[in-house]
Design goal:
The chain is α/β, with parallel strands linked by helices. Helices cover 38% and strands 20% of the residues. It contains 24 helices and 28 strands. The strands form six sheets. It has a six-stranded mixed sheet with strand order 8-10-9-11-12-13, sandwiched between helices. Strands 23, 24, 25, 26, 27 and 28 form a six-stranded antiparallel sheet that branches. Helix 4 runs parallel beside helix 5, helix 19 packs across helix 20 and helix 22 crosses helix 24. It is flat.
Length: 695
């Protein structure tokens, strides 16, 4: 187990726990953890600390940390803020390995609280700290409940192999309570609060390496420490443990709420999506969806290259399932023609394409269910099977024979994912689940969960992309460079632009135009004007020296009139390239994940079309090409409707080179904008370049 993650052992599997601020009242914050642990038979030692009591809830109490008879593995800090920092310092001095700090009023409360939180962390020294402003955690496997949530009054967690990691205490325990009420076992739940030290990434990493956890359900408002978070996601991917994450803060209001709640930075939501996809994390939209996916994942069947075969007794349900599958991009290949013919021979009025409608006739001859399902697996080759049998599967006269037919198919092909959409009594549902089937009433929810299993499978099967060799560090200028200077800098990364020349006078512009021949493009050259076309600062199709001389004068006049404060360094005259497809490439420094590359179909409508792909930097040409081919408009680049295809390899090489250059440029690089990049059959050319740097 990674040392970073294994250091949480004392938090989650301690042999002893001190409770600073222990209470005899089992309904108070300092009393609930003791009560819960006593009820659940915590095998370790509980050491209450309260200067005013000799006994608490039947346990000997101690006046101070210094008076404890032994050093506790971990401790709960449930005292007011004025005492919390001192308590943490005392625990660290005794050699306690970790502390769970319930106390609030730290970084979530503003600048003064941030200062106090820094003091708390300094007082902790080498001791790991969960919180502050933390609801706590539980590990039901060992009866350890250092948590003050009232949700446990309604029932303790069931046995199972799903772990919950949540930045929000209330929402983390909400997920647990909903899971418990659905009969889903989540024996471990850790809430991280302000994350002064222990982060959600640390908890995910610990769960990824815990042999008793198969699936990780997480709730996050913002990622405080990216490196540990990404290390944890990769540890989970390597261990083939699905992570289903509810990442909130998509909206501006949500981001502000997250910041005020746990001092989290939400970052760009599109970047978050791209990073999660990179590691095969499935992002859930609702609590119900999170638990649907987590429950399905406990079957531990993650089909790479997932395909869905649907057997149904209802044509209407088949239509609904088909719509749901298309909405999530789930493939429903048609059954082979010869297999369809064999099924039609069994039931002439069946619809055997996929969805395969075996009709209600199957319940006059229950063996038809087995024959149809066998054919779907053996002839159709589907990785996942969804069976819609509605309330018929709950019929006491049909259910036993139906289970026998389905179990026979499952026994012959145990590597497939089998999901049922049925309506049955709870005890019947439990019987189907005990047979190894995932059960949903709503077939749309089933489709969403099945599609997620395929994404997990693809991620687990993927070989990690090699990290490209680092470029030599790039020295950025003190101030924002001009377009011409930016292109010279980027040329070192293999980013090619059209032949061009910086011209300070009309005569120089005329000479450049004559030398390039044919038509040229002329642009105002200024580090202060980012969007030159908006002030008329771009002239296209300029032909000949005299036209270039006039064009130069026009550009200078427009700059003086429309951007009088801007520094003007002349005009850029470039050979005009034509044809091909205009794309956009860029770099944006994300506050959480650092430089992120973007590629899309470009030109002036890029903000409207929003057809872009993003990926963390750096990466190689293979990832770059995957990004390009993932665009909705990729067929345009590949030669749709008779259009000449562009050089995808050149485009991918430019994108990969840009990603590597961005890392070499360091933290002062804020953004790069190459728009347009002209993709042609013979290569790719950056026709404009803007580099934004920090002071």
């Amino acid at each position: 187990m990674s040392g970073r993650f294994s250091s949480l052992d004392s938090l989650l599997r301690p042999s002893s726990v001190a409770v600073i601020g222990a209470s005899a009242d089992a309904t108070r914050i300092g009393g609930r953890p003791i009560s819960y642990m006593l009820q659940q038979g915590f095998k370790g030692e509980i050491l209450p600390v309260n200067p005013n009591r000799a006994e608490i809830q039947g346990l000997q109490a101690y006046r101070s940390v210094a008076e404890l008879p032994r050093v506790p593995d971990t401790a709960i800090v449930a005292v007011p803020m004025a005492l919390a920092i001192e308590a943490v310092r005392d625990l660290s001095a005794r050699g306690t390995k970790s502390a769970i700090v319930f106390t609030a009023g730290f970084a979530e409360a503003g600048p003064e609280g941030e200062t106090l939180q820094a003091q708390l962390l300094a007082a902790a020294g080498p001791m790991r700290v969960l919180g502050p402003n933390c609801l706590g955690l539980f590990n039901g496997r060992v009866g350890f409940f250092p948590i003050f949530s009232s949700s446990l009054e309604s029932g303790f967690p069931q046995a199972g192999r799903i772990g919950i990691a949540s930045q929000s205490g209330a929402y983390g325990t909400h997920v647990f309570a909903v899971a418990r009420n659905r009969g889903i076992g989540t024996p471990i739940c850790v809430t991280t609060g302000n994350e002064s030290d222990v982060t959600i990434g640390d908890v995910i990493g610990w769960l990824a390496q815990d042999p008793d956890t198969d699936v990780i359900a997480a709730y996050a408002e913002g990622i405080r420490e990216a490196d540990g978070f990404l290390q944890a996601l990769e540890a989970a991917r390597q261990a083939k443990k699905p992570v289903v994450l509810m990442k909130v803060g998509r909206s501006a209001i949500g981001q502000q709420a997250a910041k005020s709640h746990t001092a989290s930075i939400a970052g760009d939501d599109r970047v978050t999506d791209a990073v999660l996809a990179e590691f095969g994390v499935v992002r859930a939209r609702t609590t119900e969806e999170m638990l649907d996916i987590a429950l399905t994942a406990t079957r531990r069947i993650y089909p790479a290259g997932n395909t869905l075969g649907v057997i149904t007794i209802s044509g209407g349900a088949g239509v609904l399932i088909s719509d749901a599958a298309e909405a999530v991009g789930m493939s429903l290949p048609e059954m082979p023609a010869d297999a369809q013919a064999r099924l039609k021979a069994l039931v002439p009025f069946a619809a055997p394409r996929n969805p395969v409608d075996c009709t209600a006739q199957a319940f006059n001859d229950i063996t038809l269910v087995g024959k149809f399902t066998d054919s779907m697996v053996e002839d159709g080759g589907y990785q996942s099977i969804l069976a819609f049998f509605s309330q018929v599967a709950g019929s006491p006269t049909i259910s036993p024979a139906l289970r026998a037919q389905l179990n026979a198919t499952k026994a012959k092909h145990p590597d497939r994912l089998y999901v049922l959409s049925i309506v049955a009594r709870p005890e019947q549902v439990r019987e189907y689940e005990a047979d190894g089937f995932v059960v949903f009433e709503d077939p749309t929810r089933a489709v969403v969960a099945i599609e997620a299993m395929g994404r997990f499978g693809d991620a687990f099967a993927r070989v990690a992309d090699p990290v490209p060799a680092a470029l030599d560090p790039v020295t950025l200028p003190a101030a924002m460079p001009t377009e011409a200077e930016a292109k010279v800098m980027l040329a070192a990364a293999g980013i090619v632009s059209a032949p061009e020349q910086v011209c300070a006078t009309g005569d120089e512009a005329a000479a450049a135009a004559e030398r390039f021949g044919d038509k040229v493009v002329m642009k105002i050259l200024s580090p202060d004007i980012l969007h030159k076309s908006e002030i008329g600062g771009v002239l296209l199709g300029v032909e000949g020296g005299e036209a270039a001389r006039v064009g130069f004068a026009t550009l200078m006049e427009r700059a003086a009139e429309r951007a009088p404060e801007a520094r003007i360094e002349g005009a850029l005259v470039a050979k005009q390239l034509s044809g091909g497809v205009e794309c956009i490439m860029g770099i944006q420094r994300d506050p959480v994940f650092g430089p992120v590359a973007l590629v899309g179909i470009g030109g002036i409508f890029v903000e409207i079309l929003q057809d872009v792909a993003l990926h963390r930097c750096p990466f190689g040409t293979e990832v770059a090409e995957q990004m390009i081919r993932s665009l909705k408009a990729a067929p345009i680049l590949l030669g749709a409707r008779g259009q000449a295809p562009v050089n995808i390899a050149a485009l991918a090489g430019m994108l990969a080179g840009l990603s590597q250059w961005a890392v070499a440029a360091g933290d002062r690089l804020l953004s790069v904008d190459l728009n347009p990049v002209l993709a042609l059959l013979d290569g790719a050319y950056a026709l404009d370049a803007v580099i934004e740097v920090a002071a």
